[in-house]
Amino acid sequence: MTTLSVRTTQTDDLVDITERVREAIPAGLDGAVVLYCPHTTAGLLVNEGADPDVAMDLLAALRRLVPRDGPYRHREGNAAAHIRSVLTGSSLLIPVQAGRLALGVWQRIFLAEYDGPRNREVLVQFLGPG
Amino acid sequence: MTTLSVRTTQTDDLVDITERVREAIPAGLDGAVVLYCPHTTAGLLVNEGADPDVAMDLLAALRRLVPRDGPYRHREGNAAAHIRSVLTGSSLLIPVQAGRLALGVWQRIFLAEYDGPRNREVLVQFLGPG
Amino acid sequence: MTTLSVRTTQTDDLVDITERVREAIPAGLDGAVVLYCPHTTAGLLVNEGADPDVAMDLLAALRRLVPRDGPYRHREGNAAAHIRSVLTGSSLLIPVQAGRLALGVWQRIFLAEYDGPRNREVLVQFLGPG
């Protein structure tokens, strides 16, 4: 298992970690890679990376659906970040063929920050075929 | 790894691919199957397939939560499809016992199309136990 | 594969199953554990468990985003539960190191009930490294 350290720079942020995941995968093997975010106010997602406007639209939609200002019961001020983390998910599983991520042409892997800026970690675990 | 080709027929569409996934799983083995959608405006999900109204309700809810007409910054007109893809997810992991998918009685596997009609692909990768 | 039986006690409920998952994992191995919910009106999610207000805020947000009272086409009265199940997901994948779940400090595993109270099941399957 490899651990990536990721620095986020905004309250809401999407950081492209695709190349770092590529480097963490063993060469030549078939299987799948698990990416896991051990934080409750951040997450992991796959989407288009070519046009940065897609990331902006996604973060804006999440702010509209789950506004940072409540009302919420949780008193730490980041209830919205917890909720967005659940909606977009904490783990990814991506097939690997001969050591290469089976991402689509337009797909990139992002750490999704909802309560930054912070230092975050992503666990990378390779799983083999049967 | 097997690749399924799936034709969607509507702008928003749910195509039941359960039987095709069943056929792609190796016989007799224990483990889990990864299904992966390499597209950024489509996804994969599991839900009820017995009553087609459930699929209609789901697509209507997604249109209400993330309307196709913005305002969005992304200029290709499909920002909503990218956002819905993130909310419902690009991969599935389903346990397999003795070569059989451990789906619940009412569960079916769907390709979720948010920017169709198009030809889509689904990657199917079997993973073994430890 | 192990099957956990979980009793939910509210219409909308989050039941912490972290300790039961820990007990179901083989000792000493590296890999990942798949948790799978075979129901179409419930799901599985990871989030903070220290402050129970986070769970309350999450369930309230889901009721606001996907209200129980429609209008929906599905006539069984639980269309919202199907939709919430898709939004929050039916499976989890959590890395395991030397037999220990790689959960973050604040993370707990929850069965999410959206149409209870009911008896639910969670499948637990260990997957090994390559």
What do you see in this structure?
The structure is a homotrimer of 130-residue chains. By secondary structure, chain A is an alpha+beta fold. Chain A has a single domain, classed as Sandwich (Jelly Rolls), CATH 2.60.120. Helices cover 24% and strands 37% of the residues of chain A. The first copy, chain A, is built from three helices and eight strands; from the N terminus they run E-E-H-E-E-H-H-E-E-E-E. Chain A has helices at residues 18-24, 52-65, 79-88; strands at 2-7, 13-16, 31-36, 42-48, 91-97, 100-101, 107-113, 119-127. In chain A, strands 1-8-3-5-6 form a five-stranded antiparallel β-sheet, with helices on one face. In chain A, strand 5 (91-97) and strand 6 form a beta hairpin. The longest helix of chain A has 14 residues, at 52-65.
Binned, the helix content of chain A reads 10-25%
Which CATH architecture of chain A is right? Sandwich
Order of helices and strands of chain A: EEHEEHHEEEE
Tell me the span between the first and last alpha carbons of chain A: 19 Å
Derived from helix and strand composition plus strand pairing, the structural class of chain A reads alpha+beta
Average pLDDT of chain A, rounded to a whole number, is: 96
Number of strands of chain A: 8
Largest interface: A-B, 34 and 35 residues
The biggest beta sheet of chain A is recorded as:
5 strands, antiparallel
* CATH classification, class level of chain A: Mainly Beta
| Proportion of residues in β-strands of chain A | 35-45%
By oligomeric state, this entry counts as homotrimer
The radius of gyration of chain A is 15 Å
Give the overall silhouette of chain A: elongated
Widest beta sheet: strand line-up of chain A: 1-8-3-5-6
CATH topology description of chain A: Jelly Rolls
Spans of at least 5 consecutive residues with low confidence of chain A: none
Provide the CATH superfamily of chain A: YjbQ-like
Number of helices of chain A: 3
Number of domains of chain A: 1
